[in-house]
Amino acid sequence: MKTKELITITEEFVKKILESDGSGHDWWHIHRVRNLALRIAVEEGADLFVVELAALLHDLDDWKLVGVNSGGNNSRKWLAKCGVDPQITLKVCEVIKGVSFKGANVSTATTDLECKVVQDADRLDAMGAIGIARTFAYGGSRGRGIYDPGIPPVLHNSFEEYQKSNAPTINHFYEKLLLLKDQMQTPLGKVYAEQRHQFMLKYLDQFYAEWYGNDL
């Protein structure tokens, strides 16, 4: 199968699975991450084919959507079905495995260039205006409250702790979103992250001003 054909049918496959998602992990999230990842990949000289496939498939095995026991099987099965070279399949699945945030005090730094690229792109989509919208969409989909001053944020020390968290959505800013700027691994990712980070800080200032009635 030609590269362009594989990308096209993979788009259609992922879109069909995620187009009705209401948790912020829908097709348009994939679309944005793919575009950002390719932009960063060009700057970094990364393998564009591996990056694009990994970006398109990265949420098919996300524990938040399919549970913790997927182990990359959904992506692997799709690539095998399409007759992708086993070495490419292995590479793509390894990239996907390294993308996910696993807790404030759990390092996900990598030396793999393609993984750095896709990881940065995915995390950028968790920041800024779109990141804020996605955070509240996810919280609402899980029945989480917006904010509770009596429940402080927790910087999780393990992936297991992070998975079990059911804290209000505002806590997620401190438990993940505001930490992402300093976890970017590519120069372009760092540029984007700084701008989006500052926007989130401004949003939180306004949120608290309105919450406590100090916005006038």
Structural overview:
The structure is a single chain. The protein is mostly helical. It has one domain: Hypothetical protein af1432, CATH 1.10.3210. It contains 11 helices and no strands. Helix 2 crosses helix 7, helix 3 crosses helix 6 and helix 7 packs parallel to helix 11. The longest helix has 25 residues, at 187-211. It is globular, with a radius of gyration of 18 Å. The model has no long low-confidence stretch (mean pLDDT 94).
List the main descriptive attributes of the protein structure presented here.
216 residues; mainly alpha; Hypothetical protein af1432; 0% strand
What is this structure, in a nutshell?
Helices cover 62% and strands 0% of the residues.
SS strand fraction: under 5%
Which consecutive residue ranges, at least 5 long each, have pLDDT under 50? Answer: none
What is the correct CATH architecture?
Answer: Orthogonal Bundle
CA-atom Rg in angstroms: 18 Å
Given helix and strand content, the structural type is mainly alpha
Biggest sheet character: none
Helical fraction equals 55-70%
Set down the secondary structure blueprint.
Blueprint (H helix, E strand, L loop, with lengths): L2 H16 L8 H18 L3 H10 L5 H4 L6 H9 L4 H12 L15 H12 L3 H14 L17 H6 L4 H7 L11 H25 L5
Helix pairs in contact: 1-3, 2-3, 2-7, 3-6, 3-7, 5-6, 7-11
